[in-house]
Amino acid sequence: AVTGIERTRASISGASGHRELTVHTLDELLSLATGLLAERAVCDLAAARARIAEDRFNLVVLGEFKRGKSTLINALLERVVLPTGVVPLTSVVTAIGAGGRDRLVIRYGDGRDEDRPLSDIADYVTEARNPGNQLGVELARVELDHELLGAGLELVDTPGVGSIHSHNTAVARDFLPRVDAAICVLDAGQPLSQAERELLLEVSGRVPRLLIVVNKIDHLDPADRDVAVQFVRTALREVLGDAAADAELFAVSARRREGLSRLVERLRRLAADEREELLTRSVARLARSVALDTAQAARFESRATQLPLEELGSRAAMFERRIGELKAATGEAGDLLDRGIERALEQSVNEPLKLYARREEARLRAELRAHADEVSSGSPRELSADLEAWVDATIRAEFERFVPQFETTIGGELTELERHYASRIEQILEQVQQTAEDVFGTRASDVLPDTGLRAPSAFSFKLKDPEHGLDMIVGFGRTITPGALGRRLVLRDAEQRLVDMSDRHAGRLRSELAGRVSDAVREYRRELSAAVDEAIEAIRAAIERAGADQRRGEQHARARLEQLGQIERRCVQLAGEFGAVEVHQTRGRDDAS
After folding, report:
1. The model's pTM
2. Of these four, 75, 244, 250, 508, which has the most CB atoms within 10 Å of its CB?
3. What are phi and psi of 90, to 5 degrees?
4. Cβ atoms of 86 and 144 closer than 8 Å
5. Cβ distance 46 to 40 under 8 Å?
């Protein structure tokens, strides 16, 4: 007899046979998983099924905000398709695939599709015109006639991680289960932040092919470019370990189209030689995980259904008592995280910044006077404009110099606090499943979340603060005072502006860092608390279904037990088949290489 695994292995030897079998088995797995697994897992599986059915290969462009992801995609396509700029722009996932004509389709979260002119794309995918995705766009799909797209690649632009808009990071991370291969874009001038290291580590564990693009090499001298690239290579080995050997590195300037030919050629080879194998491996890996978790969920519900109704009720009550303790522990862990964050901000940010103005005031005043002495000619008004520009430039330089120190320090402390919190939540999630096993004889799931703490965004400057009306009148009067007196008054105003701007920016930095850190921690707490809630609710739902089946009568309960047993056995079998597909494709790639 030919086993399911043998049928799967045989089918993938043809050009499209694997696709037909995989679509069929994915449809079956979707049917089995629906109602037993969380909605997100089912949606990710449905998206995988669609990619296989449509032969769509998601080459996803990932990275921190302002790394030039959209600019790189435009350069690869040799035309401006996606909006670009110096502020975090992309807020919606945008997929660019092959089509006979230029087309933009907006897919909303409620399932609606709407055709729009391609020129309207910024209205739907940018933070400025669709803040917080208030329009409810699930995906913007662009269709173009282009060689790379026609070869089967679908380029996917994602929101940047670590921007001031934390929801953009969440959108990018939520798309990771749908990635078949990834391009991670770094900045040559500031390669591999902590957030990028965490992103690379997460992506490398999920996708079968990872390309690293070091962008903006035109910002560096030729000698410095090699240093930056070597730094990235070394850091990749530190972050990814043995997996770094499979990560391919490209140094480019997307804006000037430098170094793109090698990347384009690599993408052509990927489309021609690897696309089908990588797509199959990616989908098979996801499907195997879903199949195993569905089997586990069916096993748990079956065990609950076998219990007498009265005993089921008493065990459910026991479960709820112990879950109440775990929920309280979740809240306590979050409170400890909050207190740790408050201490870190006070010690590493607030106290040092309070000392900044007093420590640096004398030096900055002396430098201002020296600059004023150099500007020996010109009217008081011209001197005022010159000194205002000097103060703004000096304050910017001062904060650009030491802001990274604060962000690095607080980032390191956040990472350590996050580790402790994540470890505690993982223990609680494990205890939830252990409680289910203690009370009902088996676990409901073995899946744990793999989310990380959001990195705070970079500090932004606001040097032209609004002035009070009276201050503006007085200041103007001093600029029209003639001679040495006017110059002295202008210099005194400039000194006061220097002190005020230092204080304001120190205060703004304290406030912004505290706000961004708080937002990141709040979102992180929400996500992990939701993971605990989701695990608990899945168990409760299974218990409720078991009770409802028993109340409908013994015959109905026996039928449901038989159905659950079939689901479990079939999902275990499907997990084996999808595992065989992944192994076969990996070996085939190794043999070819």
Report:
1. 0.71
2. 75
3. -70, 130
4. no
5. no
Which stretches of the chain score pLDDT less than 70?
1-21, 85-91, 160-176, 357, 376-378, 404, 407-408, 411, 415, 448-487, 520, 582-593
Give per-residue burial for 159-186: e unless 16+ CB within 10 Å, then b.
bbbbbbbbbbbbbbbebbbbbbbbbbbb
Strand partners, 94: 140, 157
Residue 3 is encoded by which pair of tokens?
């086993």
Q: Is the dihedral angle over the CA atoms 220, 223, 226, 231 positive or is it negative? A: negative
Given this model, what pLDDT does residue 302 score? 96
Q: What is the structure's pLDDT at 567?
A: 96
The confidence score (pLDDT) of residue 21 equals 67
Contact 18, 581 (CB under 8 A): yes
| Alpha carbon distance 512, 29 (integer Å) | 47
Q: Tokens for 8? A: 């799967």
- A 10 A CB-CB count for 459 gives 18
Buried-exposed string 123-153: b where 16+ CB fall within 10 A, e elsewhere? bbbbbebbeebebebbbbbbbbebebbeebb
Phi first, then psi: what are they for 107, rounded to 5°? -105, 125
For position 484, what pLDDT does the model report? 65
The Cα–Cα gap between 453 and 429 comes to: 18
Query: Of how many residues is the chain composed?
Result: 593
| Residue whose entry in the numeric block shows the structure tokens 């790639």 | 589
| Distance (Å, whole) CA 538 – CA 300 | 10
Amino acid found at 592 = A
Mean pLDDT of the chain: 80
**Close Cβ partners of 585 (under 8 Å, ≥ 6 residues apart):** 12, 277, 280, 281, 284
Residue 308 Cα distances to 456, 554, 564, angstroms = 52, 10, 17
Question: What angle is formed at CA 32 by the lines to CA 577 and CA 580, rounded to 5 degrees?
Answer: 10
First to last CA, the chain: 33
Torsion sign over Cα 67, 193, 334, 425? positive
The whole-angstrom separation of Cα 47 and Cα 534 is 21
Region at 136 (left for phi over 0; alpha for psi -120 to 50; beta for the rest): left
CA distances to 210, 368, 573 from 492, rounded to whole Å, are 57, 10, 81
The letter for the amino acid at 126 is T
Eight-state DSSP code of residue 272: I
List all residues 6 or more positions away from 491 whose beta carbon is below 8 Å from its beta carbon. 368, 369, 372, 383, 387
The Cα 157–Cα 142 span in angstroms is 11
Beta-bridged to residue 250, according to DSSP, are 213
Helices (H), 460-553: 469-479, 483-551
What's the pLDDT score for residue 330?
A: 92
Backbone angles phi, psi at 563, to 5 degrees: -65, -45
- When computed from its CA atoms, the radius of gyration of the chain, rounded to whole angstroms, is 29
Count CB atoms within 10 A of the CB of residue 314: 12
